[in-house]
Write a structure and sequence with these properties.
mainly alpha, elongated
């Protein structure tokens, strides 16, 4: 994760996860908040799945991004599609549904950005791990042996 875009995507993922935790807590205690989850049980399960996926995405693993996309795509895509269909059919929509639609759009686009960020990451392709040469170039004990050997060659000067 050497790019600013990668750091920002992970930051927004964690911030959006925290926001969804607050939404789930406020909904479970029957308090009015900005938005209400469409299904509280799926929301809670999805919070734990995302909690597992974030470290994988941070480590640039494709499986974490795919699971994140499938989970959020199913949950927020379904909600977003139902709200858009209500708008297309000409039904009157309260302002809270527009707010919910905005956060569903954010929840739908965020995993797409994370997946494309991992797919297009140049560092992942440019610096792969190679077991044949990493033992030599990334071995600290070998470097220490060279340093100790070099320190023993102290010659007296007059």
């Amino acid at each position: 994760m050497k790019n600013l875009s990668s750091w920002l995507i992970v930051f927004f993922m964690v911030a959006f996860w925290g926001f969804r935790v607050i939404v789930a807590i406020m909904s479970s205690i029957n308090s009015q908040f900005m938005i209400q989850p469409s299904n509280l049980n799926i929301e809670i399960v999805l919070l734990f799945v995302v909690l597992i996926c974030v470290p994988f995405i941070f480590k640039r693993k494709m499986i974490g991004a795919i699971i994140y996309l499938v989970g959020y795509g199913y949950y927020f895509g379904q909600d977003l599609l139902s709200k858009i269909m209500m708008m297309i059919n000409g039904e009157t929509i309260p302002m809270s549904d527009y707010t919910s639609m905005f956060f569903s759009l954010v929840g739908f686009c965020l995993p797409i950005f994370a997946l494309f960020d991992i797919l297009l990451d140049k560092g992942r392709k440019a610096n792969p791990k190679d077991k044949k040469t990493d033992w030599f170039y990334k071995n600290e004990q070998y470097d220490r042996q060279l340093d100790e050997r070099a320190d023993k060659n102290n010659y007296r000067t007059l």
